[in-house]
Amino acid sequence: ETGVTQSPTHLIKTRGQQVTLRCSSQSGHNTVSWYQQALGQGPQFIFQYYREEENGRGNFPPRFSGLQFPNYSSELNVNALELDDSALYLCASSFRGLAGDDEQFFGPGTRLTVL
Amino acid sequence: DQQVKQNSPSLSVQEGRISILNCDYTNSMFDYFLWYKKYPAEGPTFLISISSIKDKNEDGRFTVFLNKSAKHLSLHIVPSQPGDSAVYFCAASESRGSTLGRLYFGRGTQLTVWP
User: Fold this and answer.
1) Helices and strands counted in chain A (H then E)
2) Which of B10, B13, B44, B73 could anchor a disulfide with B38, C-beta 3.0 to 4.6 Å?
3) In chain A, what are the helix, strand and coil shares in percent, each to the nearest 5?
């Protein structure tokens, strides 16, 4: 069973640039959630995708956008990067069935630094 | 607004003794609670969960207690081992039985187990 993988591991960008982070779900999972973890904080929910559609969004501006592909992999795109976007970005996958969502399994994260 | 709070940023315990990690929440709609463990350079790993219809759930050395009236849960680790040293996150969800699987996280507690 393949776990959740994310790429790249680390990334350095400058203010105003755009970035795309990628996530491959765990085998058998159909739902992907993205979280931002700033230094010293817990993960904060950005949004969730199910069946290629956004299914819930946290308190993040529209310049944070995402995609889910037919194979359930996902991308997180951030436009017009700001210094405060520097954080660990975590992807989590889970299985959604008739009874609701099972536990979310996290990838190792992408460390984004904005200079 | 932090809906899940872990007020102790760190805890130090001797090997073999009990570790008790605490978590408080404010949202009475939360009905499912989870603990995740996180090692450096890795994503959070699911540890144990509890539904609001229970007040205790046990899995080996790990037990989670839920006090709904006090909006408080705790994770007990007995006996503690040096390998348990990690950051522990408390998380909550308001819809285990439906399809909105957003997790709200606390800021985490760094547990250090010394020999």
Assistant:
1) 0, 13
2) B44
3) 5, 55, 45
DSSP secondary structure, A47-83, as one string: EEEETTEEEEE-S--TTEEEEE-TTS-EEEEE-S--G
The answer to whether A7 faces chain B, any CB pair under 8 Å, is no
What backbone phi and psi angles, to 5 degrees, belong to B7?
Answer: -85, -10
Q: Which residues of B touch A48 (CB under 8 A)?
A: 101-102
* Tokens describing residue B96: 């285990």
Q: What mean pLDDT is predicted for residues A105-113?
A: 95
Contacts of A37 (CB under 8 A, 6+ apart): A43, A44, A87, A88, A89, A90, A109
Banded model confidence at residue B84, pLDDT cuts 50, 70, 90 = very high
H helix count then E strand count, chain B = 0, 11
Cα distances from A19 to residues A54, A90, A96, A102, in angstroms, run: 19, 15, 28, 30
Q: Which residues pair with A64 in a beta bridge?
A: A78
A33 and A25 in contact (C-beta within 8 Å)? no
Contact list, B91 vs chain A (CB under 8 Å): 42
Q: Do A96 and B99 touch (CB under 8 A)?
A: yes
| Residues of chain B above pLDDT 70, percent | 93
Tally Cβ neighbours within 10 Å of residue B71.
17
